[in-house]
Amino acid sequence: MSSLSLNDLSILLLEPSDTQRKIIMSHLQKEGVSSIQTATSIDEAKAIILRHKPDLIASALHFADGEAFDLLQYINSTPALNDIQFMLVSSECRREQLEIYRQSGVVAILPKPFNAEHLVTALHSTIDLLSHDELDLSHFDVHNIRVLVVDDSRMARNIIKRTIANLGMQLITEAEDGAQAIKLMQDTMFDLVQHALC
User: Fold this and answer.
1) Which of 19, 33, 118, 170 could cross-link to 28 by cystine, CB 3.0-4.6 Å?
2) Could you tell me if 142 and 169 are in contact, meaning their C-beta atoms sit under 8 angstroms apart?
3) Number of folded domains that form the chain
4) Is residue 136 part of a domain?
């Protein structure tokens, strides 16, 4: 099975500003993304998602009809949409304002303005999450795979643990940060380490 490429990604760009939308679209196209839909409001985005489910939503923070988190909650509460990845693109830099997005498991939080390296990292993280052949478990007894989940958010760790458990993995250890993860790895050999993306 061949892995996904950036050209395979289907992206919904949710941005109320015409100027920002053009800038972000230009960046995406330069990186080889060709399937880009756009929306300027939460309601418009919901209507598009129901017609054609994208792989990734790249969203600004504030809209006339709500916040990006409203759309993220809608996606997370709709089983058919749960595999849509979400990336926040915002000039907001206050940690307390962004923490709710981190805890919801977004693939990336990009600053405005962002550089090409940030965007490429976020896009490749999305591909990693979408690629079904990234984790080939056919040669393993999944029940015996030892997994270390590293994230400073308990909610994010719980989401990751649920996802991993759904694959049949049962030997799951948690770490709140890199220092704790290193201590655990000094004592135990792990087959898989899942860490925070941002």
Assistant:
1) 33
2) yes
3) 2
4) no
